[in-house]
Amino acid sequence: MSAVLEDRAAFLEWFGERRAANTYRVTPVPLDSLDGWHFDPGTGNLGHRSGGFFTVEGIEASLGEDVGTWTQPIIIQDEIGILGILVKLFDGKPYFLMQAKMEPGNVNTLQLSPTVQATRSNYTRVHRGSAVPYLEYFVDPRQGRRVFDSLQSEQGSWFLAKRNRNMIVEIPEEAEVPAHDSFRWVSQDLLKDLLRIDNVVNMDSRTVLSGLPFLHGEQSATGDEPHTKAEILSWFTEARSNHVLERRRIPLNQVKGWSRGPERIEHERGTFFTVLGVEVEASSREVARWSQPLLAPVDRGVVAFLARRTSPEADWQVLVHAQSEAGTSDVVEMSPTVNCVPANYTHLPPQQRPPFLDHVLTAPPSRIHFDTVLSEEGGRFHHAENRYVLVEVPDDFGAAAQLPDDYIWMTRRQLTGFVRYGNHVNVVARSLLACLMD
Predict the structure, then answer these.
(1) Which of 315, 301, 310, 342 is nearest to 426 (CA)?
(2) InterPro entries, alphabetically (predicted)?
(3) What percent of the chain has pLDDT above 90?
(4) Which of 102, 216, 317, 344 is the most exposed place for a label (fewest CB within 10 A)?
(5) What is the pLDDT of residue 398?
(6) Neighbours of 39 (CB within 10 A)
(7) Which domains does the chain have, with CATH numbers?
(8) Contact at 8 Å (CB) between 409 and 390?
(9) How far apart are the first and last CA of the chain?
(10) Which backbone phi and psi does 334 adopt, to 5 degrees?
């Protein structure tokens, strides 16, 4: 089969071959029986015997009087991993070296990953496994042109200030870079098509692909921007100044409202998420067998932009929310209009539901321009899915004066411009931007 893929049928054939060529098995096991992992007798924190990878600890957080203070388990992973994609021109068109990669938390086991998707513990081989292919293109000294290189945040509800290095590296057209069995050069048009299929392109690919517009240089203004860049930066600075986010790490055994049994950690109401254990076998990974904990959300989330445009040819204007989460690095980040798990709010009165959630859930099909279920990071999360949606609002949706202070309209291109900078655009917003690429 060719190392270059340009259409869905060829991709599905290759992807099916990769699934059949390897052995994958993920078996739930009690947390107390995870090989190499243990609960600290003093703090109750869950960690690996090597001191690497990550820990599950506790956090106490407050978002001010309106939300109050709460405690929860949270993943602590201070090391910075690499998420990198190689891009190369074939006959003048860009192709991306993508990987069919197994992750233990994926709903369908195998998804399309970046060229390199590795934590520092993995690429420094703490696990004593095999080397990471193509890593040499993303660490010094490296070949190629760095198109996009930025430290980007991950899920603030589940990670404390977690960041990964997102990179796109363009290599010369004449360079010979063979595609190993689990890798293929994928055209940009095919990637765009695959993003519309449920649970095919993984989160790590999407966050890197949000930097794709920089392959062609910085984007200029088009004249249909509802606010200038200076106005947006002022709004964002004011949001960071006005929002309250206070937090402190606490021992896992001091987290209130959560129970820890031998099997799992879970909330007393059965909401939010659980922490469970798995044993993994994967013939295609750097290590063929291992154990680990995974965080499992209790239900599917909704990630949506409300959107409008001044003409059918104009860029989408999206309604952006300055959102705080327990693990957000710098108080707030630019988030989609809606970013929540609706099931977590069923016990609350209607006025405490996330703003604009009902606009998304009740939108008629004629106003939905993108609607795909996509997985979150399968290396840490078990069957974590979000419904990613772009909903066009009617003309009478309302004036800017009626918006809450922490919402603002900006064009898709303007929001993409802020992806260049770390801790500005959150991971689910970057994912949805990748889905809306030209």
Answers:
(1) 301
(2) EvaA-like, EvaA-like_sf
(3) 85
(4) 216
(5) 73
(6) 18
(7) 229-245+299-435 (3.90.79.40)
(8) no
(9) 28
(10) -75, 120
pLDDT score of 2:
77
In contact, 118 and 135? CB cutoff 8 Å: yes
List, as own/partner pairs, every contact residues 223-226 make where C-beta atoms lie below 8 angstroms and the sequence separation is at least 24, other chains included: 224/309, 224/310, 224/311, 224/314, 224/315, 224/317, 224/411, 225/410, 225/411, 225/414, 226/317, 226/400, 226/409, 226/410, 226/411
- Average pLDDT of the residues of the chain: 93
Ranges assigned E (strand) in 201-288: 246-250, 258-260, 265-267, 273-282
* CA 228/CA 318 separation, integer angstroms: 14
DSSP, residue by residue, 254-274:
G-SSEEE-SS-EEETTS-SEE
**Greatest pairwise CA separation for the chain in angstroms:** 62
pLDDT, residue 128, reads: 53
At a CB cut-off of 8 Å and minimum separation 6, what does 26 contact? 104, 109, 278, 279, 280, 281
Q: How confident is the model at residue 153 (pLDDT cuts 50, 70, 90)?
A: very high
pLDDT at 95 exceeding the cut of 80 = yes
